Amino acid sequence: MSDQLHAYRAALLYSLDDPASVGVAASYRHLEDGLLLVADGRIRALGPAAELLPGLAPTVAVRHWPDALITPGFIDTHIHYPQTGIVGAGGEQLLDWLSRHTYPTELRFADRDYAEQVARFFIGELLRNGTTSALVFPTVHPESVDAFFAVAAELDLRMLCGKVLMDRNAPPALCDTPASGYEQSQALIERWHGKGRLGYAVTPRFAGSCSDEQLHLAGRLLREHPGVHLHTHLAENRREVSWVRSLFPERSSYLDVYAHHGLVGPRSLFAHAIHLGEQDCRQLAASGAAVAFCPTSNLFLGSGLFDLGRAERLGLKVGIGSDIGAGTSFSLLQTLNEAYKVEQLQGRSLDPFKALYLATLGGARALGLDGRIGSLAPGHEADFVVLDWNATPLLQFRLQQAQSLAERLAVLLTLGDDRVVQETFVAGVSRHRREG
Ligand code: GUN
Ligand code: ZN
């Protein structure tokens, strides 16, 4: 893209830090009538429109949304693209849901054309919902990774993905072997990692579907390719936890299965982490690893309530995850709406600025991508969304009674979904514009 300057005028809001560390007031920056200057895919400057407009060359076109809020693009720290077609398939908890709904649908992703068709639809949904980056599960098939990365590359999205490793306890057609999983992952890392904005995540599905040998080779991939990420599931469901204990009797805990193979470190992300002892939680925090809080999924599958308060107390990095297809919405606004309720059920509340942090800067930190995405500060990649305060009659009516920014933001998180996302920019380029 050209290094021509583009200017966007609206209210601007972004997180500076975690409200749990610095307090709410110091955790964000808000400009009521701001100007965002973008060139060459990056944010060049921002400030009050009244200050920046006079200095702008007359050739720079200014797009103005008088009734909108610009925030960084949302970051989904845990999602499965092949499960787009099974959202809402209910009736079971995790292990039965995997056998009945998930594995049958994942079998279809051996077909590269089908995988690409779903990847294209999936990425369209992300953009419609204001999500500009995600850590994504494909399937065991290398074709499913190629398809996903090819579509993401076309749109210059910052995305993380990596072939699922699973060599047992699943239909044979979905299983690799430790050796084939290792070799295919290596080839995919060489093909995709660091290409444009793409990054690779070594992705053992979960301890229940991986042998010791496979987990050992996953650790080797991480050691041999220091920049790649690790993505897996951890302690999501009580039956799963006791089953994993029976599969690995020599390990002291579910987390220890991963730690034993060198999979717990600063580039690791564990989805769910609900049924976890205090000691494991401390170990995760000390390692610099992150967890994904997936409230719609945890409620849909009846998995349990994630303890965000404990994560804050122990300094454990947390991002928000839709976990489509166990999760029920692509919208991170709706996901945060459910996170609020999960907090309420545990006697706490979710501050709207903490919610903003989880979906933006907190997600970037969880993925080790802070400094690049998750913020509107100059130098960051220009992934941002334009959110329409008047998207629905109810929002419009409700916001007439809302005074403060905190209250308006809380209402947006409660009532908002894809309808509020007016436009989504990726590396400075508009990639979704709502009709109407
Ligand atoms: N654990 C292992 N595989 C999966 C999956 O596909 N979804 C969820 N929610 N948990 C898992
Ligand atoms: Zn998942």
UniProtKB/TrEMBL annotation:
NCBIfam families tied to this protein: guan_deamin (TIGR02967), PRK09228.1 (NF006679)
Any one GO molecular function term: zinc ion binding
Protein name: Guanine deaminase
Functional pathway: Purine metabolism; guanine degradation; xanthine from guanine: step 1/1
Required cofactor names: Zn(2+)
Keywords for this protein: Hydrolase, Metal-binding, Zinc
Enzyme Commission designation: 3.5.4.3
Pfam families the record matches: Amidohydro_1
Database matches in CDD domains: GDEase
Gene3D superfamilies, sorted: Metal-dependent hydrolases, Urease, subunit C, domain 1
Enzyme class: hydrolase
InterPro entries in alphabetical order: Amidohydro-rel (IPR006680), Guanine_deaminase (IPR014311), Metal-dep_hydrolase_composite (IPR011059), Metal_Hydrolase (IPR032466), Metallo-dep_hydrolases (IPR051607)
Functional description taken from the UniProt entry: Catalyzes the hydrolytic deamination of guanine, producing xanthine and ammonia.
PANTHER family per UniProt: GUANINE DEAMINASE
Cofactor binding comment, as recorded: Binds 1 zinc ion per subunit.
Reaction catalysis annotation: guanine + H2O + H(+) = xanthine + NH4(+)
Domain Amidohydrolase-related: 70-428
GO BP annotations listed: guanine catabolic process
Family: Belongs to the metallo-dependent hydrolases superfamily. ATZ/TRZ family.
GO cellular component: cytosol
Metal-binding recorded as keyword: yes
UniProt entry tagged with the keyword Hydrolase: yes
